[in-house]
Structures are given as structure tokens and as C-alpha cells.
Amino acid sequence: MKIATYNVNGVNGRLPVLLRWLKEAQPDIVCLQELKAPQERFPITEINEAGYQAIWKGQKSWNGVAILTKDLEITEVQRTLPGDNNDLQSRYIEAIIDQMVICCFYLPNGNPYPGEKFEYKLSWIKRLKKRSQQLIDMDLPAILIGDFNIIPTAEDVYKPERWENDALYRTEVRKAFQDLTRKGWIDSIRSLYPDEKIYTFWDYLYKAYERNAGIRLDHILLSPYLKSGLKSAGVDKYVRGWEKSSDHAPVWIELGRK
Question: Which of 6, 28, 147, 219 is catalytic?
């Protein structure tokens, strides 16, 4: 089974890119972030015509998340990360697919640091850690997947010294990521490629993609239940080079089942 995450940076504006990639890559499950579309503007007709069904939570202008599946039933669990009834941002959607819990999210960026946006990011992470611990305690086959807006280590960023006071790389958020892995969540890409230079995002400015001056923000974390099933993983970096592409590239894993 092929499971992927892709920050599309505008699902309607980049729909041709998304559909082309779906046709070429043929993932079974896809988690999308940054739809930048209200609920009624999600392109479900085109997604269905491409062979996928979907659940999604849109938001006008910003945010938005979706889960797509090919020939697999989706049972929605929740579309809000528990813990804050006043949080109206569309950043989280959770479903059961093929007996796995899929937690798709677009974690807050948090910039500028310091400030309210960074504090919101930390509170959001705290809520995510609570939900993730529940899944670990239940020993479920579960996946935390999406744009984490966290650069885990210095190996995951071009020239890390430039990012020390950026909300993507602050000590607090890197520690939170490490806390997840210490609790048992497996960073799928790094578990297979511990020493390779791997990025998932390249800014549109300064020819970052051409220079491979990137950062790794998009992650697929597996619960211990799924660890033995991980067969392969990768980043479809070439998609970032397509015309009118997102500044992120799709990240995927191949998963066998027990």
C-alpha cells in the first residue's frame, strides 16, 4: 500500500499538477494540506474522475486538509484536533482506512517568533501530542501524516545556522518532534535513510530548488504497530520542478501489512 502526503499550496490553482501526479504515482491514500479553498470549492468532481474518493475540511483563503483514497473506504473519525473548542482553523482531519487510523494535519507555521502565532503553534503541538499518546496507548495501527512545519534536525535544513530563531526550527518544536519519536512514533523517511540529505520544501525565491537549498517539513510518522510493515519511502522531488507546482513535493511510503 502506497501512502503519501502533499502540501498542494492551493488545490484549485494547482489542480493540474495534483491530477498529473496522482495519475503517475498511483498512491492508495493521499493526505493533502493547504487547500486554500472553502468547503464548497473543493474539486471533488475532478478528484472522483481521477479515481479517488475524499473527505475534506476547507477554509476560505487559508489552511484546509483532505484525505483521498483509491478503492478504499474512508470512515471519518473527527475533523478537529481535540482540546480547544475555540480553534476554528481547518488544520486536522482523522479517519479510519483499511483498519488504520490516519491523522492528516497542517501544523501551524508559528512565525514570527516570538509572538502569538508561535504560542498557538506550541499549544497545537501539545494537543497533538495528547492525541498521539492515546493512539500509542491503544496500540493501534496509526499514522501521523502531513506538513508538520517542523524541521527536526540540522540534517533536515540547508544552512541550519540561518534558521535558529525561525518558528520551524526553534528548540521547542524540535524537542516536540523528538518527544514523539521517543514515545514510539517512527520517522519513516529517516528510519530508512538516516544519513541522506532529504528535503521536501524549496522556497520560490533565490532559485532554492535549483540549488537544492531546501528543508524537510513534511513527515509520515508510524505507530509501533506498523513499524515492521515499512518497506520503502521517498520524496517525489521532481514534482517540485513542474510548471506552477507547489513549493512542497509529495512524500510517500510503501507499507506492507501484518
Answer: 147
